[in-house]
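The protein record quoted in full:
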Amino acid sequence: MISPNRIVQLDDRTIGHIAAGEVVERPAQVVKELIENSIDAGAKRIVVDVERGGFDLMRILDDGSGIHEEDLPLSLDRHATSKLRSQEDLASIGTLGFRGEALASIGMVSRLSISSRPAGTEGRRIVMDNGDKNKIEPAGIAEGTCIEVSNIFANQPARLAFQRRPATETSKIVDVVVSHAISHPEVGFRLTSDDKVILEVPAVDEMEDRLYDILGRQAGRMIEISSPPTDDEAQEKRIGADGYPLPDITRGKGDDIHVLINGSQ
């Protein structure tokens, strides 16, 4: 028997559960990670469906590049990613995610189903149920990827007990989707909660059109401001700023302020 004060190497399953706690804090975090994966995959339309604040179901469907059949099992392993190849790539990251931890962490605390079909191939599905990875099977799906996350934290009652109410989590998920919709007007978004459409905006070319789709007539009162680079160093680094303030609105909180850096929140 090993003395309790001796150092031991943890097994992969325990390591996975610890890592999952760092990545997956609540359903809204899952929606954020999966939307960003869809955007990184070049999706032009993303559909998000949630039930009971995401605790029963979160489904994210996109028309992106998809995941190759041979890569499906690997996508459920920690630190497996298509966004990095070497240490040097860390100096020039151009994607929203890059660590390769999200899917593996989600699959440790839920039933995670990934169905995907890259162009010119047949659809395939793989399921990971609270850390147990199943075999690949055929799936009927259009080109792109559909990820379903169900019964999150169901096998972890201690974590589930500290979660917010479903209505609170639904509100947070709406904030996540709206933030990404503002950040990426070139992508169409649709969000439903318990079969009720909460948000639906088409892909557009101009930020003004996206703001109008989200804010309605209020967007017409916004004033566009632009601060281009003012010196040689700023121009070389392409440092500038644009904004759309509502000058006659004051608020005590900053929850409706969205700051985008290089096109992302």
